[in-house]
Amino acid sequence: MVIGGGGEGKRKGFIRLAMQAGADVIPVFAFGQSQTYKWLRPGPPFVSDAFVKALSRRIGMAPLLLLGRWGTPIPHPARLTVAVGAPMSLPRHDSPPEELVQQHLDRYIAELSALFERHKAAAGYKDLELRIL
Predict the structure, then answer these.
(1) Are 26 and 83 in the same domain?
(2) Is the model's pTM score more than 0.85?
(3) Is residue 70 located within the same domain as residue 133?
(4) Is the same domain home to 131 and 94?
(5) For burial by CB atoms within 10 Å, which of 50, 61, 73, 127 has the most?
(6) How many domains are there within the chain?
């Protein structure tokens, strides 16, 4: 699974699934991935911000049009640096309580943030700030 996008700090399903399956989760961050596509976000003057926000809430993500090479889904060439953290073992639990899921999500976010900070300068992004929404 690849976690990301708006609201990732609230998405706990991957932690719950990993716990139910007895699987590890591995923090991974790809530096440069935002260079692979251009994007267009609908908004004024064509559509109101209120409409865009309502649609975002309804579909659970920001409505974006991603454009790759020649306007296709093929990504633009970009230098990617992928940082891979250590596997995080999670306890197996068929029906994990919400507070346990949140505890392991917080741990995952802390590991991902530390991974980002350790590798951002070497990847060419020393001034980049990670924001998990």
Answers:
(1) yes
(2) no
(3) no
(4) yes
(5) 61
(6) 2
Q: Please give the residue range of the domain that contains residue 62.
A: 37-77
- Do 104 and 88 have their domain in common? yes
Q: Tell whether omega for the bond before 87 is within 30 degrees of 0, i.e. cis.
A: no
SS3 30: strand
The token pair that represents 21 in the structure block: 């399956």
3-state DSSP of 89-131: CCCCCCCCCHHHHHHHHHHHHHHHHHHHHHHCCCCCCCCCCCC
- 9 and 71 assigned to the same domain: no
For residue 6, the model assigns a pLDDT of 55
Question: pLDDT class for 1, splitting at 50, 70, 90?
Answer: very low
25 and 90, same structural domain? Answer: yes
Burial bucket for residue 71 (CB in 10 Å: 0-12, 13-18, 19+): exposed
Structure tokens at 24: 């590890």
Task: Tell the residue number behind the tokens 């309804």, with chain if given.
Answer: 58
The model's confidence at residue 115, banded by pLDDT at 50, 70 and 90, is very high
Query: Greater confidence, 44 or 94?
Result: 94
Are residues 98 and 119 both part of a single domain?
yes
Taking residues 35-48, what's their average pLDDT?
A: 84
